[in-house]
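Q: Here's a chain of 478 amino acids. Please give me its 3D structure as tokens.
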Amino acid sequence: MTESDNPSPSRARRDKLVALGSLIVLATWLAYLNRAAQADDAMICLRYVRNLVDGLGWSFNPGEATQGSTSVLNTLLLALATWVSGEPIPAQVVVQGLCVAGAAWFVLLLVERDHGFLAGALAAAIVVSVPLFETTQGLECAPFACGLTAATWAAARGRLRLASLLVGLTALARPSGILLVPILFGHEWWRARSEGRLRQALSATLVPVGIVLGLWSAWAWAAFGSPLPNTLAAKIAQRDSGLFGHGHLFWRGLRGLLPQVVRRGINLNDKLVLAVFLLGLVVSVRTRLWPLLVFATVQTLAYVVLNPPFYHWYALPMFLGVALGVVAVFLALRSKWPRAALIVPIGWLALSAPDLVHERAPYPNTLAYQNAAAALAKVSAPGQTFAAWEIGNLGYHLRELRVLDLAGLVTEAAHEPLSRGDTTWFLARKPDFVLLHDPPWKRMEEPIVEHATFRTHYRLIETIAAPPPYGVRIYERQ
């Protein structure tokens, strides 16, 4: 064995520091390139962030305590970064970059311990290149992935209390993170039971996560009346409404997105992608990555059962799982054919890289909603109310106006009527303005424009042109 095969401790530390610095620079640069291209829901979180930083509390509409940002951890991280930087968008870039780099770093550590630094570095590069990170900037996907990989690394090192604490934080990033508890600690419980130390094992693995979630739950119960995010009830109402389709909503949406698991614009066969994931799941049992692939499987099955309308950020565990499945296949091949196996990570990176290294333009709906916000700002007064289906960009740019969220994410009153398919419930609240699409969305908005109350009391004052289906009509109450 040569010195390069078994580097000195000082060289190993230097290589890891260089890798960590490189991952931070690369992930933050990619986040900077994506700063203008954000899902509308990411801007919902940023309005919460700005209200928090300005001392207006955990609210979308100041004075109305609602947990409509889904991710507690993401909101707090962005609020802290915004408080330091003074601006939410640069803060968003920093949080995204650090969390994606963190997810890749912990995967490097998981792989490097058994398979060497080069294999770990290639695995980290594959994680950074997962295309769903760039299309979910500002949402909880990056903190969630970082929490998943960090907790898995801590458990693999036998640091059970730290792993439990990290699971608690991961569950604050997205509640489904709690599914990691039995996955990471189940074997330890079984072994401890046979050795007569089950109580100690349960204490080490459950107390830290219980403290984290207990503190949040106690505060949320007092502030909001429930520790669960308002968005959960909203998505169930959307499912029950029939407005978002029928049947297997989540599974149909996931299968439609999986072909783009390597790169947007390259449509692989969804059955091939699932086969790669399942192969990776099987061979990962010989690696320290297996809890992450098991988690991707369990969460996906849970969402299939719950069956909410599909939003692309729900696919993060599966996208990350496919990428790590590719890593697991690479590691399995590398044990027999070290050089030939390199074609797996190099091939993945060659396919994914061209779509990553360019500055992305805003989505068409983003520009339309920004233009609509500018137009509404000219004719509205502080404290007035508007109603809309997509409230992220509109709410962020119209902070002095109150919002009725027709999709129910931040407006709890929408849940019951929405679950019945009633989209006109808000008319009884007499909002000053209503923003619909041009042309109106068939299932959601046509019943509104045809309603007698709407036709009597609202008049069209401006139309914002945009590619279908994102043109906007602004109506004012007469």
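Q: Can you summarize the key feature?
A: The beta strands are 385-388, 402-405, 433-438, 458-464, 471-477.
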